[in-house]
Every structure is written in structure tokens, then in C-alpha cells.
């Protein structure tokens, strides 16, 4: 019996092995067919993109301007509250693309079967892509007509974002994250445009609405991502962002007016990039704003990254959703910003508002640092005071730097934002390291040091000082008019007039050169 059973057992084992091999082979064939169909469909898609007719049609649609949005020098479009709010809305849900992944990195690691350390490459590459877009794309706003440029970037971001919603490959997800982050710089094109269009007495208020949208996007992205991912799938938040990008595209297409380039004669791209470096050595107010922006952005990211660790540990032990709801404190502060800007920033010199914002930050950080382990009220007070302070100082700094070179506002904004971005990286790295080694008070003490450094650089140079160091011009904190009751005109008018004057000078110099050549020809004829 034993001898007879063994052959049957071996035969059954062989049959099961054959069945397993056959099943694996079928699965392999199905996977290969699926991958082949995916690759072929991808090739068809990119072949269609490469088709000249498709490119031409897309270009015509994106560059066509509705009649109500076209530029008329006799009756230029008005910059009202509706357009201001549209720019703020677009800024919120555009910059949010960079932060949807922050609360769900552990879920993305499980989805793509990678370690948490590998998953952390997603926000790192998105930050790197955003920095590349700031440095290499934003300066082009000084050359191109900004309506068409903004629409093309939004369309490109929304279309490539579809790959993030569908891909199951981690390397492809990383590559698309970098690309979409690089093109997610449209808010940094809108801010200089607001500085161009808004009247000087309303510039800070107008800027505060867009800046509030930027900071709101950083917070609301974490909130929405955490809630949607907990109750649905992580892809839901990416599909939500995909729809929002096309909604922004449609709204901007029908309501964003067309404005002429501030440099209609064109600029050399590489010399334009080099001019950003020259600005830093030319304008003391820009350097002062960049240093303060570095300090304030560092405490922002340091607080919001270490706050997660604080609230998830004893004595709090909050759930991820509860930690995400903590962002509502920051959202309340953002909504308060425009009213504060109208009451303070529009009435006083920018330096006064910058110092006031740093004092708000200092008070909040001190309270939160020394009470954060005792009561949750400490971090709440810190978040509210710090967000108001950072928003106040950023708006005031932008109001100051946008007046230095009207025809180079996008390059000025690039220099400022690169310093802000470097501050965010430094705050994240230093804050996390100090929290790991010394806890909540160590990271808070570092934030106090950054604020102190910012205050020192504020007092090195006065509000009316033209040079690098000193307080020449007085200590007055109220804005001054240009004399005779005439206030400064909107910057767009100045930039266009400067451009037309340059063209006139070129025309005059060209006509003088022609007259000189004609005179030389006559002398030569007489001599002969």
C-alpha cells in the first residue's frame, strides 16, 4: 500500500506543480499583455502630443483671448477685487500640489512597496522641482505675455498630473512629481503681476490676498489629504487636485486679462538669469528682505514638521485626523491677514510692518516653546501668532522689493523666493534634527534664534536709508507721497512708459545714426 501511495502522491504533487506553473505563466502573459497595452497606449498618447497638428491646436486654444480680456491701451482692464480673489484661489490650489503627499507618505510607501526613507524622496524631489521652476521659469515672466504663459503652465501641470493619478511605478511617480512641481510656479507669476497692477495705496492689501492663498494652500493640502485618504483611497486626493487644476485653467482662461510684456524688446535668457545675481549686489532693500524671508520661512517649516511629532507623543497622542485639523488654526490666521494689511501695512513703511511681524512671531514662539509640553493651548497660540507674523512680514517685504525695478519684478520675485525656499529647507532639516536630539524646546529655541537674527538685520538699515547700513532719512514710519499730494502710480503704467521711452531712445539713436551716415556720404561725394 505504501509503495502504491507514493506514486500517486508524487503524481498529484507533479500535477499541482504543473497547475501552479501554468497559472503563473497565464498571470505572466496577462501582465505582459497589460504592460504591452499600457506601453502601446502610452506611445500613441505621446505620438499624438508630438503631432504638429495637436500642438498647433493646443497652442491656438491657450493663446486665444476672449474679447473682454484683451489688452486695450486706451481702456486697460481694471484690477478689482474679483480678479484679486481669483488669483488667491488659483494660488491656494496650485501650491497645494506640493503638500498633498506630506500626511500620507507612509501610505504611499505601502502602496509602492518601498521604505519610508524612499517615500520621503517624493516631497524632496517636489521641493527640488519647485526650486528649479522658480529659478528657470519665473524670470520668463519679464519676457512673455503673462496670460498665455500662466495658462500654458497650468495646462501642462494638469495634464502631467494625470500620470500621478494612474501610475503604479514608483520611479515614474518620482519623475512626474519633479516635473509637475517645476511647473507649479504660476502663483509666483501672479504675485509680481498684482504688484504691477494694484495701486500703491492698495498694493499690500492686494498682495495679502494672494499670499494668504499661498499659505492657505500649504495648510489646506495637509488637511484635505489626511481626511480623504483616511476614508477613501490616497488616489482620491490626487484626482481632486487633477480636477482643481482644470477648474483653475477654465476660470483663468475666461477671466484673466491679457497684459503686455514689460520688456517688449525681449531679453537674452542667460543674461537675464545673471541679472538676478547682479540685483543682489545692487539693491540693499532686496538683500534685507531676502535675509528676513529666510529667517521667517525657516521657523514656519520647523514648527509644522515638529508639531506632528509633539502631538502624536504623550501627553497628547492625537490621531492623524486630529493633527490635520490643527491646521484650522493657521487657516484662521490667514483669513485675518488681508484686514491686518489694510489697517497697518498700507499705511506704514514696509520695514515697520516687517518688525511688527517678527515681534508677533517671537511672542508666539516663546509661548509655544515653554508651554507646548504642558498644554495644547501653547502650540495653538504659537500657530496663530506665528502665521500672522510671517504673513505680515512677507507681504511687507514684497511691497518693498516690488518698487525697486518695475520692469524686472519677476526676477526680483525669483531672488526673494529662492531665499524663502532655502529657509524652508533649512528649517525642516535643522528643526527635525534638534527635535530628535533635544526635543520640543530645542527646536523652539532655534526658532527664537532665527527671529532674533531677522530683527538684527531689520535694525541695521532704516526705512528711508538708500545705502547698505544706517538710518539716514529719518525714523518716520508713515508712508510719504511724491510731493504736491501726488501719489505713486500703478507700476504697470510706469513699466510700460519706461519701455516706450526706451524704444523712443532706440528710435532716436537710430535716426541720428542714419543722419550721421548720410552726412558722411555727402562729404565723401563732395570730396570726390
Structure characterization notes:
- This protein is mostly helical.
- It folds into two domains: 87-259, Up-down Bundle (Growth Hormone, Chain: A); 281-479, Growth Hormone, Chain: A (Up-down Bundle), CATH 1.20.1250.
- 77% of the residues lie in helices and 0% in strands.
- The chain contains 20 helices and no strands.
- It has helices at residues 2-50, 52-63, 81-95, 105-111, 116-119, 121-136, 146-166, 170-183, 186-197, 203-231, 234-255, 269-282, 284-312, 320-325, 327-345, 350-371, 377-401, 409-438, 440-460, 491-527.
- It is globular.
- The protein starts with a helix and ends with a helix.
- It comes from Lachnellula hyalina.
- Residues 1-37, 482-528 are annotated as: Disordered.
Short description:
The chain is an all-alpha fold and about 525 residues long.
Share of helical residues: over 70%
Kindly give the count of domains.
2
| Regions with little confidence, pLDDT below 50 for 5+ residues | 1-43, 481-493, 498-518, 520-525
Question: How much strand?
Answer: under 5%
SSE pattern: HHHHHHHHHHHHHHHHHHHH
Number of H- or I-type helical stretches? 20
Instruction: Look up the CATH topology of the largest domain.
Output: Growth Hormone, Chain: A
Alpha carbon gap, first and last residue: 131 Å
Name given to the CATH homologous superfamily of the largest domain: MFS general substrate transporter like domains
C-alpha geometry? globular
Largest sheet: none
Number of strands: 0
Amino acid at each position: 500500500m505504501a509503495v502504491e501511495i507514493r506514486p500517486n502522491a508524487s503524481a498529484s504533487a507533479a500535477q499541482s506543480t504543473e497547475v501552479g506553473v501554468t497559472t503563473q505563466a497565464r498571470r505572466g502573459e496577462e501582465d505582459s499583455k497589460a504592460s504591452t497595452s499600457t506601453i502601446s497606449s502610452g506611445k500613441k498618447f505621446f505620438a499624438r502630443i508630438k503631432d504638429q497638428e495637436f500642438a498647433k491646436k493646443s497652442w491656438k486654444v491657450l493663446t486665444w483671448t476672449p474679447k473682454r480680456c484683451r489688452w486695450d491701451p486706451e481702456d486697460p482692464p481694471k484690477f478689482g477685487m474679483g480678479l484679486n480673489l481669483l488669483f488667491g484661489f488659483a494660488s491656494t490650489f496650485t501650491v497645494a500640489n506640493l503638500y498633498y503627499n506630506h500626511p500620507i507618505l507612509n501610505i504611499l510607501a505601502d502602496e509602492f512597496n518601498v521604505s519610508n526613507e524612499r517615500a520621503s524622496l517624493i516631497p524632496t524631489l517636489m521641493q527640488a522641482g519647485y526650486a528649479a521652476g522658480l529659478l528657470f521659469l519665473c524670470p520668463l515672466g519679464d519676457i512673455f505675455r503673462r496670460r498665455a504663459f500662466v495658462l500654458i503652465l497650468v495646462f501642462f501641470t494638469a495634464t502631467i498630473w494625470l500620470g500621478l493619478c494612474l501610475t503604479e511605478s514608483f520611479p515614474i511617480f518620482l519623475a512626474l512629481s519633479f516635473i509637475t512641481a517645476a511647473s507649479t510656479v504660476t502663483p509666483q507669476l501672479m504675485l509680481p503681476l498684482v504688484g504691477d497692477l494694484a495701486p500703491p495705496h492698495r498694493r499690500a492689501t492686494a498682495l495679502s490676498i494672494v499670499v494668504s492663498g499661498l499659505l492657505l494652500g500649504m495648510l489646506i493640502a495637509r488637511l484635505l489629504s489626511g481626511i480623504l485618504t483616511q476614508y477613501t483611497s490616497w488616489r482620491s486626493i490626487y484626482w481632486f487636485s487633477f480636477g482643481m487644476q482644470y477648474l483653475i485653467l477654465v476660470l483663468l482662461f475666461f477671466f484673466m486679462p491679457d497684459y503686455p510684456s514689460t520688456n517688449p524688446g525681449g531679453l537674452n535668457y542667460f543674461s537675464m538669469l545673471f541679472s538676478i545675481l547682479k540685483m543682489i549686489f545692487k539693491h540693499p532693500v532686496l538683500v534685507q528682505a531676502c535675509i528676513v524671508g529666510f529667517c521667517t520661512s525657516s521657523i514656519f517649516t520647523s514648527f509644522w514638521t515638529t508639531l506632528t511629532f509633539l502631538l502624536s507623543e504623550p501627553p497628547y497622542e492625537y490621531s492623524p485626523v486630529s493633527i490635520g485639523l490643527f491646521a484650522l488654526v493657521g487657516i484662521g490666521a490667514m483669513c485675518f491677514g488681508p484686514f491686518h494689511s489694510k489697517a497697518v501695512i498700507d499705511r506704514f513703511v514696509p520695514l515697520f510692518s516687517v518688525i511688527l511681524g517678527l515681534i508677533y512671531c517671537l511672542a508666539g514662539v516663546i509661548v509655544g516653546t515653554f508651554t507646548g509640553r504642558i498644554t495644547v493651548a501653547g502650540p495653538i497660540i504659537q500657530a496663530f501668532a506665528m502665521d500672522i507674523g510671517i504673513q505680515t512680514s512677507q507681504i511687507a517685504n514684497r511691497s518693498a522689493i516690488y518698487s525697486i525695478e518695475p520692469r524686472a519684478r519677476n526676477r526680483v520675485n525669483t531672488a526673494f523666493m529662492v531665499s524663502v525656499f532655502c529657509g524652508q529647507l533649512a528649517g525642516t532639516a535643522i528643526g527635525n534634527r534638534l527635535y530628535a536630539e533635544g526635543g520640543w524646546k530645542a527646536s523652539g529655541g532655534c526658532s527664537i534664534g532665527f527671529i532674533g537674527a531677522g530683527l538684527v538685520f531689520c535694525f541695521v538699515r532704516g526705512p528711508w536709508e538708500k545705502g547698505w547700513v544706517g538710518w539716514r532719512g529719518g525714523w518716520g514710519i508713515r508712508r510719504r507721497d511724491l510731493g504736491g499730494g501726488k501719489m505713486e502710480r500703478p507700476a504697470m503704467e510706469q513699466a510700460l512708459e519706461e519701455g516706450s521711452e526706451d524704444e523712443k531712445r532706440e528710435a532716436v539713436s537710430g535716426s541720428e545714426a542714419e543722419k550721421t551716415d548720410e552726412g558722411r556720404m555727402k562729404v565723401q561725394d563732395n570730396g570726390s
